[in-house]
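Ticket reopened. Same input as before:
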Amino acid sequence: MTIRSDRDHGQRYRPRMSCLKKLEATVVQMQDPSTGVKGTDQKLNVTIIPHVITGQDIVAWITKNMNIDSDEAQAFGTMLVAFGYIYPLQDHKKLVLRPDGSLYRFQTPYFWPVQKWKAEDTDYAIYLAKRNIRKKGVLDAYEQEEYNKLHKWMNHKWDFIVMQAKEQYHAGKARQKADRVVFDCQERAYWIVHRPPPQTHSAMDYGLDRHIDPNAEEKKTYDYYRRIIIYTQQAVMRSRVKSSVSLGALAKYITTFKNHDPFLVPCLPSNPWQTDDDSYWELNTPDVEIPTKMRVERWSFSFYELLNDPRGRADFKIFLKKEFSGENLAFWEAAEELKWGTAASMSEKAEHIFKTFLAPGAPRWINIDGRTMGLTVKGLEHPHRYVLDAAQTHIFMLMKKDTFYRYLKSPVYKEMQKKAISPAPHNFSEAQLQQNMRNRRPSIDPIITWQKEQEEKAKAEAASGPKVRDRCMLKMLYLTSYVHMTAEQLVPIICIATSK
Amino acid sequence: MCDQTFLAITFGPCDNCSQNKPLMNIYLKNEPINYCSLCVELMACQGLAKGETIHTLKAESETLKTKLEEERAKLHDVELHQVAEKIEALGQFVMKTRRTLKGHGNKVLCVDWCRDKRRIVSSSQDGKVIVWDAYTTNKEHAVTMPCTWVMACAYAPSGCAVACGGLDNKCSVYPLSLDKNENLAAKKKSVAMHTNYLSSCSFTNSDMQILTSSGDGTCALWDVESGQLLQSFHGHSADVLSLNLAPSETGNTFVSGGCDKKANVWDMRSGQNVQSFETHESDINSVKYYPSGDAFATGSDDATCRLYDLRADREVAIYSKESIIFGASSVDFSLSGRLLFAGYNDYTINVWDVLKGTRVAILFGHENRVSTVRVSPDGTAFCSGSWDNTFDLRNILYGFALYWHQGLYIGVLHHPVMSVP
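Engineering reply: fixed in the latest deploy. New output:
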């Protein structure tokens, strides 16, 4: 007979297994004589087992009382079986709930997976020894192995174990046959949950223990409160935005990107995972000549999207070149490299950036306000990876608020929109899909792609050096021919002219 | 972009010790000042001043906390589901397994995608870390770590290296090579050193820096080349289980979730904890930023997933159901942010509609808890890793791309997935 109870048995609350408490509450409900699952008596060999329930009844009860559909109810029921609240009478090693006429019983609360009670090896040894006493050779292969192992480890207390096993065996014999059979089933079910047979797992296995006990009271010394005060003061003064504004922005983001989400709208020409055709990836490589229309549209959503996409960034660079303001993006990229670069290369990079972008008369001088320039130059005396933060922020905001919008209106972008391709959706027949599956193409190793990118970058840098100088020279020549001045008189003018 | 740290001064002379260091922006007697982390620490630990007792400090902290809640409530004028009313509902979802990757002999603990959208790295309990081309299901590289329970693995942005760590308390970076026969363990670089297990790691925008979180309650930023600690983040009072970098052009913040039920947002440059949310009732197993970077979602052992808005500074949605009582181990957003995929300890994956707060699909098929769920970089598929190692291959329906990756064998969708209210 099963007892209805959901007491904690005095065990310490283990928060990760708090689901067990909820499972227990449900199991108690299920055993209610009037509203619970209806049980019957079942004849097993010679004995009659009381309170047997069928899988489909369990699923039906869960479906009705928890207001979910039968698939979810079956999954929930499987959890009940996996944790040992309900055990199967047939095929006892497989802890799943079958939604058919398979027979189950409620486990007695004594064997419920109480939250802190770990199934001890000593108890397992006693259990196996008891079964051995009852009938030799009744243990399964894996149980025999475990038994031998335990015999070796616990040799020092083996007498105690055998004595306990004998006691339990005699106590069991004193019971009525029906009760004995039921108890044996229950005990066996308990050990299947806590010592799973090979090729199965125990639901009680939750992984590693946490290092710091979250239940332990934190020592509330004065510095604990001071830290809270420091944090909360800063948090209070933080500027916030109205919920309507920020939630509206979240909703807007979703609507903007809706057509680009492959889970909501099929991607063109087809999703490579579905059709085994990787054209979608081929058409969207980082260095593709002609991008797709969707990709070009995405660049217009925000400056971040444009910069994040290597093809978009390349297009933006073309636009900047036409406007002769490429140094802003170049400076931003260089500052990013400094920020995310290795610690060893920092001072060298900082120096290079100073010479190229910040020094008076630098070839790619960036236009930032005096205060920021002063701060940055001063900071560069002892370079730290965030030393360019202020300048980088300034330049970034400039690009984001001004250059980006001009780019979207520019002929460079408009032409790209016109040139962009719109691939037609694939329509593969079953046979073609089968063929695609057999011919899945491997891709270039990312290491090779990376090496190529680095080579391209190095070439670009080597090329841009002399180019800048050449531009200087060209302007100088132009001015000398147009205005009759000597070279010395021209140098300061050239410097101002080449800095934007 | 909500990244307010963007505009704050975070490097320069400290107002207290005048040294040039990364700065934390704090308030002293309601006046903003910039102190370096050492000075802040000293300030916190200085002895009780005249007239101060623990009780006065406690009372002060309580009043400040109430004030914070008031400030947050002042701007709370609308709920998420009200905003979502104007948005059309989602249709039916049917998801299908597309690939199954066999190869791990034990529980799969962590999975990460490569930026090329088809390769993934996965790590398992037995110490194996495998790099796959998921599209062709070929194994490309395999490394055996000298420890078990490799809970963290990450693919480098360049695709040239992977980082992993676990019970060895370290994070190691393995540069990948084109030569398949090369022993990757020979070139391994030990980068991070914690005093307890490594729970999560992530590369920043380049291969050169790694962000790690550990069971010892701290997160840290490391330089890969030298193994130098660049910044450490203290503030959690229990194990930190998960972290995620903000997807913004500045990339200055990250969020971490821990067993102290808190989700903290940090400024990577100064180590300052800029925002903190404590509304969960149990350990936070997983945190993930919303694609725009203005919000993040968390999955917790209290069987709920929650959405926190960073600009409004509050929790805005709870994704839960009475019938879901097992903890969520891992969450991830789809590309547009409309769908939230969450893997649970009851062997299922629930797909939530982020705006409306309803569940749009439940996916069965795994036979042990789902440990990790990750959407691919271009949003075309998501993969789930689980602890199961039993075999069950059954028939499948049409649908969107999704694939599973399990301990030893393959588990496949065996029930038609329905859209549930």
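Chain A touches chain B through 111 residues (CB under 8 Å). Strands of chain A lie at 40-44, 47-54, 86-88, 103-106. Please confirm and we'll close it.
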